[in-house]
Design brief:
alpha/beta, 23% strand, 5-stranded parallel beta sheet, 10 strands, elongated, binds S-adenosylmethionine, 34% helix, single chain
Length: 236
């Protein structure tokens, strides 16, 4: 490697995968999954199901929240040999509430080639279908699990757009926590519009819209399962 970057450039492809519907995998993602010499997976067993569906068999290694930092040196070494490495998470876009961002930062800093293969991202998919004011929006990932910390976390985030107007906020919520989150939002900002976007692209895809209290009341026990994005529209 020289000060200007590596003498041999490898390629890291960041590959978005479906969040439920396998039909959402792009043609380009399919092609690159068949080309990489190594695929870094959040969970190799999980990604094996997608690869089996595609009839592909790349070499896979785990790269998850607990080993990402220690894997970076190895991955940079393989890229310096000119290899093409893919990065996937269990679902959706790697790095966004998923592992990968520290690796990508190191690969960019080492001046290897980085390609992004965009695709499903639950926050964007839910926001687009919510009917809420979509721009500006903030993506916050997961809230803290503990109720006091979560309430404070929401209080700090649910502010109107800088400069005025409406602003939407997207929070990832495991289905079992949706009711508690709605109660927190109701306590902080009872008048806001919220949408619980559930099971996006899957069989039971659905949207519950209204004030936090109205949506909490409409939430059926079977809807407190699965995956959800909570969208919150704050106005001045
Ligand atoms: N990187 C992923 C993405 O691009 O959206 C997010 C991964 S994060 C670990 C998983 C969370 O994303 C879930 O708890 C849920 O809040 C949200 N999510 C993922 N798939 C979803 C779906 N099909 N419907 C609703 N929310 C989903």
């Amino acid at each position: 490697m020289t000060a200007a970057g590596p003498t041999v450039r490898g390629t890291l492809s960041i590959i978005a995968t479906p969040i439920g519907n396998l039909g959402d995998l792009s043609e380009r993602a399919r092609t690159v999954l068949g080309e990489v010499s190594l695929l870094l997976c959040e969970d190799t067993r999980h990604t094996a199901r997608l690869l089996q569906h595609l009839g592909l068999n790349p070499r896979c290694q785990a790269l998850h929240a607990h080993n990402e930092t220690e894997r970076i040196g190895d991955v940079l070494g393989m890229l310096a040999e000119g290899r093409h490495i893919g990065l996937v998470s269990d679902a959706g876009t790697p790095c966004l509430s998923d592992p990968g961002a520290r690796l990508v930062d190191a690969v960019q800093a080492a001046k290897h080639t980085v390609h992004t293969l965009p695709g499903p991202f639950a926050a964007a998919a839910g926001l687009a279908a919510s009917g809420l004011n979509p721009v500006p929006f903030a993506f916050w990932g997961f809230a803290p699990k503990a109720s006091m910390a979560r309430r404070r976390w929401l209080e700090l985030r649910l502010s109107p757009a800088p400069g005025g107007g409406a602003m939407s906020h997207a929070v990832y919520v495991p289905g079992r926590d949706v009711a508690a989150m709605l109660a927190d939002v109701d306590a902080i900002a009872p008048e806001v519009r919220v949408v619980v976007a559930r099971e996006l692209t899957k069989l039971h895809e659905g949207y519950l819209r209204g004030t936090p209290a109205a949506v909490a009341e409409a939430l059926l026990p079977e809807q407190a399962k699965g995956e959800a994005v909570l969208l919150i529209e704050v106005t001045e």
